[in-house]
From TrEMBL:
<dbReference type="InterPro" id="IPR029039">
    <property type="entry name" value="Flavoprotein-like_sf"/>
</dbReference>
<protein>
    <submittedName>
        <fullName>Putative NADPH-quinone reductase</fullName>
    </submittedName>
</protein>
<keyword id="KW-0560">Oxidoreductase</keyword>
<dbReference type="GO" id="GO:0003955">
    <property type="term" value="F:NAD(P)H dehydrogenase (quinone) activity"/>
</dbReference>
<dbReference type="Pfam" id="PF02525">
    <property type="entry name" value="Flavodoxin_2"/>
</dbReference>
<comment type="similarity">
    <text>Belongs to the NAD(P)H dehydrogenase (quinone) family.</text>
</comment>
<dbReference type="InterPro" id="IPR003680">
    <property type="entry name" value="Flavodoxin_fold"/>
</dbReference>
<dbReference type="GO" id="GO:0005829">
    <property type="term" value="C:cytosol"/>
</dbReference>
<feature type="domain" description="Flavodoxin-like fold">
    <location>
        <begin position="4"/>
        <end position="179"/>
    </location>
</feature>
<dbReference type="InterPro" id="IPR051545">
    <property type="entry name" value="NAD(P)H_dehydrogenase_qn"/>
</dbReference>
Amino acid sequence: MIRKRVFVLNGHPAAESLTGNMAKVYADAAARAGHDVRLVNLHDLQFDPDYGFGGYVNKKPLEPALEQVMADIEWSEHVVVATPVWWGGVPAKLKGLFDRALLPGFAFDTRKTTRMGLPAPLLGGRTGRILMMSDTPGWLFRLLYRNALMVQMRGQILGFVGIKPLRISQFSGASHPKDGVVKKWSRTVARIGAAAA
């Protein structure tokens, strides 16, 4: 087994949540398997999620919490984000973290472009995993919503800055899971975490 540096972000803004439990299951399993793990909970981070200026010239000063998240991403070889699906997207505070931390010069370079004309990613060499908790069944998420959140994360957020491949595990029926389902999900997440995959 190749030992990896794994950064796990619990992207649920509440102190207690199924999403947070799954993030911890992943982190604990990865640590037991010998990986170096850093687990951060979004609800512990104090920062203004509003980018505010709407441009990259007059940058809003970074709070220490955001600087630490950026340092954790730089340190990592594998990035894991656990998130609920709210109104078809991630929670506002998690989106705010992406807006504030994934900045030019750190996450991408607007002065250089890819062959497709997009800003050059600066966080390449890292793999990723999304643990996605939703109520919408997977088949309906694909058919009705065309996997919109997955497309956004792969193409416009984490994949955009170079975190590839980005694998996504969706767990549906998260608000009221049936008996035994959470244990089954935990076993799945633990297996993935042990492999740092």
